[in-house]
Structures are given as structure tokens and as C-alpha cells.
Specification:
Elements: H1 2-42, E1 56-62, E2 65-74, E3 77-87, E4 90-98, E5 104-112, H2 122-125, H3 160-179
Antiparallel strand pairs: 1-2, 2-3, 3-4, 4-5
Length: 199
């Protein structure tokens, strides 16, 4: 019996490993396309040239936790991938596009475990023309906060926790954009006090 069960386990393990290898490539291709489409969307659509498709990872400590942010340089500005771990359902990950002065060009939600029908509205709630519109705002001029916290952004109805997590993710994306010293026009970065130069 032990030999039979061991044999079955080995065969199943081999089949799973084989299936993983077969699906690995298509999954990576799908993820890359989803990211590329997301970058295009948050930069305002049209033709967008991404100068560093793999992105540049930046580690930052926020509220005592080390978080990873990813910066993508484009010919239209900068896209930043940012995660806030305090959503109602856990991690809430967004991709935010900024022009050279830090104005928000667009955003897309990459990971959302919020309550269906309530917090799950965040992909649309903060878009242009929606109740909580943040498009065109500059988080450096006015920190993005919901009205309940003294800000000027309408929270998703009955989903203040999700709204706060979303706005924190966007605000941290902006902070990463500024701290990295990224120039949205050229994709250049300023390092150790030197003038920015094209890479």
C-alpha cells in the first residue's frame, strides 16, 4: 500500500511539474501584456513607449513596513506600481501614471480583494467623471484623503477602509515618484546630487 501511494504521489507530482512548465510561458506572457496594457491606460492611452519594461524596484519603509514599489519610465511620464496592505480584504495594488510635474494621468487597479459591490468599486470610483475623481490632481499639492479625514475626495459609499487604502497607495506611488528623482520627460534619474542625464 505504501509503495502504491508513493508511486501515485510521484506520478501526480511529475504531472503537476510538467503542467507548470507548460503553462509558465503563457502565464508570463499574459502578465506582461496585462502590465503593458495597464501602463498604456494610466498614461492616457495611445502609443506609449516604455523605456524599462521590467521596471525599477524601489524599497521604502512605510509605517514601519518595508514595501516594494516599481517605477516604469515612459515617453509620456512615469507609471508607479504601489501596494497598500491595509485594504478591507488585504493587499490593494494600483498602477498610477504621472506626468513630469506629478499630476495624475490615470490609474488602474492590479490587485483587489475588496468586498464585491462595495470596496470592489475602486477600479471605477476614482476615475475621471466619477464621484471620487482623482485624475488631474497632484498629490504633492494636496495629500489625497477622503473627506472623513479632512481631505477632498469622496469615499466609496460604505467602503471608507478601501477608499483610504486606495488613496494611501496612490499617495505612496507619488512619494516614490518624487523620492526617486524621476524626470517624466526623459526617464532620467537624479542620483547622489548629480544633474539628471539620459540613461
Amino acid at each position: 500500500m505504501v509503495c502504491v501511494l508513493t508511486g501515485i504521489a510521484v506520478i501526480c507530482g511529475g504531472l503537476l511539474a510538467g503542467a507548470n512548465e507548460v503553462t509558465k510561458g503563457p502565464i508570463e506572457a499574459t502578465n506582461a501584456k496585462t502590465l503593458a496594457d495597464g501602463i498604456t491606460a494610466v498614461m492616457g492611452g495611445g502609443s506609449v513607449k516604455v523605456e524599462n519594461p521590467d521596471g525599477k524596484e524601489v524599497k521604502r519603509t512605510v509605517d514601519g513596513k518595508e514595501l516594494t514599489y516599481t517605477i516604469y519610465n515612459t515617453d509620456k511620464g512615469i507609471a508607479v506600481k504601489s501596494t497598500d496592505p491595509k485594504g478591507f480584504g488585504g493587499n490593494l495594488t494600483v498602477l498610477v501614471g504621472f506626468n513630469q510635474t506629478g499630476d495624475i494621468l490615470g490609474y488602474t487597479v492590479l490587485e483587489n480583494n475588496e468586498t464585491p459591490g462595495l470596496g470592489a468599486k475602486c477600479p471605477d470610483w476614482f476615475q475621471q467623471g466619477a464621484p471620487g475623481n482623482i485624475i488631474g490632481k497632484n498629490p504633492g499639492a494636496n495629500e489625497l484623503k477622503v473627506k472623513q479625514d479632512g481631505g477632498d475626495v469622496d469615499a466609496i459609499t460604505a467602503s471608507t477602509i478601501t477608499s483610504r487604502a486606495f488613496l494611501r497607495a496612490v499617495q505612496q506611488a507619488y512619494s516614490t515618484f518624487k523620492e526617486a528623482g524621476v524626470d517624466g520627460c526623459t526617464g532620467a534619474t537624479t542620483q547622489e546630487g548629480k544633474e539628471a542625464t539620459n540613461e
